[in-house]
Amino acid sequence: MRIVSRRAEAVVFGGRGDVTVSPVDLPEIGHTDVLMETRVSVVSTGTEGWILTDRFHWGGSMPYPLVPGYQKAGVVLEVGAGVDGLAPGDRVFMTTSKVCEPVHAFSGGHISLSQEIQSEVLKLPAEVSDLEAANLVVAQVGYNAASRPRIHGGEVAAVFGDGMIGQMAAQALRARGARVVLCGRRQPRLELARRYSADVVVNVAQHEARWALSGIAPGGVQVIVDTTPSPDMSLYLDVLQPRDGQVVLSGFYPGGLDVDADALQKREVALLTNSGWTCERLDATLDLVARGLLRTTPLITHRFSYHEAPEAWSMIRDRDEDVLGVAFDWTTP
Question: Looking at the structure, do residues 22 and 146 belong to the same domain, yes or no?
Fold first, then answer.
């Protein structure tokens, strides 16, 4: 007899600023569904922070109550009759999850039992740990940003933003052969970037970015990747090479963008964007992680039991400079 529903524990945003750990129901398993027991999930502090404060408005107002997050790793418990290539006991990564109303999945990342169609599931190689895999979507956003510009090797690329996406973009640019300068404001994050992500770091709270970058690349940088919520396009034009520079916009911009289109056109600056994830890019990112070219685990600065999610979010909202990556352990009872 098939189980009609399953009860899971989940991190739930009940409203603006409200974080609880609450029970939710999962639907009956579908023909191509995979049910996973979650071991670890990683917070996307930027996107989930916008969701918690009701400022992530690509799809309108937030459908509270909701389960946030979109990256987790665990072990398969059950598969639908139409699933091929996965079986109970397999280690997998999963993005989204299905839940039953009145709670909504947005996108259902932080949950003890995760159920979704097979296309949102990746089987994990032995050389990739659960924690490494559980940050795969954010790593893929950085990989995606770094894949947009033309890179032949030896170019100077400046990444603005010292968060996880900026760090991942910097690592992926280095993997493509660029010399990477990471510009940020939080010294503890910059120290991690110096060790794992970039060739040079610049604390723009202490040093003027124009002067710092002009000393590093006197002829101008070839590539800029922005991962901030408020890109300084005037600064970017000042530090780019005279022609054929490239700017990748990889942040979330609730205030919109102020862009001098004439200046971009006169200097033939390529303005590039990236967003979301695809299965192909997740596969490519997972390969870079497996090969040691993207290192996510050293950037996980804080680990909590999932029961401590409200305390974790209190810390994230306080914008502690020591906070970069935050993971929830779902193996504790």
Answer: no
Q: What's the domain count of the chain? A: 2
Burial of 241 (C-beta count, 10 Å sphere; 0-12/13-18/19+): middle
Mean pLDDT of all residues in 162-173: 97
CA distances from 146 to 151, 220, 224 (A): 9, 18, 10
pTM of the entire predicted model? 0.94
Are 180 and 229 part of one and the same domain? yes
Say if 177 falls within a structural domain: yes
Those residues whose C-beta lies under 8 Å from the C-beta of residue 266, and which sit 6 or more positions away, are none
CB 310 within 8 A of CB 20: yes
Contact 221, 158 (CB under 8 A): yes
Q: What is the DSSP letter of 306?
A: G
pLDDT at 59: 60
Identify whether 89 is part of a domain: yes
Give tens-digit pLDDT for 248-298.
Answer: 999 888 878 888 899 999 999 999 999 889 999 999 999 999 999 999 999
Q: State the CB neighbour count (10 A cutoff) for residue 246.
A: 21
Identify the CATH number of the domain in which residue 29 sits: 3.90.180.10
Contact 231, 253 (CB under 8 A): yes
CATH number, position 211: 3.40.50.720
Owning domain of residue 130: 6-135+296-329
For residue 297, give the DSSP letter: G
Pick from 107, 52, 40: nearest CA to 313? 52
CA angle, 270 then 294 then 303, to 5°: 115
